[in-house]
Design a protein that fits this description.
Layout: H1 2-18, H2 20-26, E1 34-39, H3 46-50, E2 57-62, H4 76-87, E3 92-98, H5 102-108, H6 117-122, H7 127-135, H8 142-157, H9 161-168, E4 173-180, E5 185-189, H10 191-198
């Protein structure tokens, strides 16, 4: 914990003064242009990867960058998606998977999650991703599952009413990314991921 306190000190003494005007503006204005849905993995930091300033990204981070398909009732992911799209009016939504994802590795390799029942239940939102990977003859391939999972989560995202309305009105664009930790590269998934949304 001492390094966190030291980080706060550095932020207050070095970073904040250099961006004081930005923070003064952000104190009264919250208009991010992009919703970034990424994994909770500590190695995947949206603002670092995209080199964006505070206020530019509205971020949701979940284990496995999973977005449950819309169902009646409220949950944190649904509420955050709806707020970003319907209230903040973001124009772009990115679902970003990544290499060496622990959630996707656990699923691809069939790890026993009996000691983590909440994790096991959450990862059921990747069932379609597993099915698509198996149908493509790539069962057990973590990299393939990561890519299929991004496409599946884009499809789930499109089931949310706020997203469906914005897509129909031409007010929103969906993007699928895969971040490679070792290389520092970001691949944008193309037509295959977008066709999964249309399906």
């Amino acid at each position: 914990m001492p390094h966190l306190a030291e980080g706060i000190d550095r932020f207050q003494q070095e970073v904040f003064p250099a961006k004081a005007g930005l923070f003064a503006h952000l104190a009264t204005v919250h208009r991010p242009g992009t919703l970034f849905i990424g994994c909770s993995d500590a190695r995947v930091v949206p603002e670092l990867i995209t080199q964006t300033d505070p206020g530019e990204l509205f971020v949701i981070r979940t284990a496995g960058n999973l977005v449950p398909a819309h169902t009646p009732g409220a949950d944190a992911v649904t509420a955050a998606v709806e707020y970003a799209v319907a209230v903040l009016g973001v124009r772009d939504v990115i679902v970003c998977g990544h290499s060496a994802c622990g959630a996707m590795t656990a699923l691809a390799e069939g790890h026993d999650l009996g000691a983590a029942p909440a994790v096991a239940a959450w990862l059921r939102h990747a069932d379609a991703s597993l099915a698509r990977t198996a149908a493509a003859g790539r069962r057990g391939d973590v990299a393939a599952l990561v890519r299929e999972n991004v496409a599946a989560q884009l499809a789930n995202l499109a089931t949310h009413p706020s997203v469906a309305r914005a897509l129909a009105g031409g007010d929103l664009r969906l993007h699928g990314w895969v971040f490679d930790i070792a290389e520092g590269s970001v691949e944008e998934l193309g037509a295959a991921a977008r066709s999964a949304v249309a399906a």
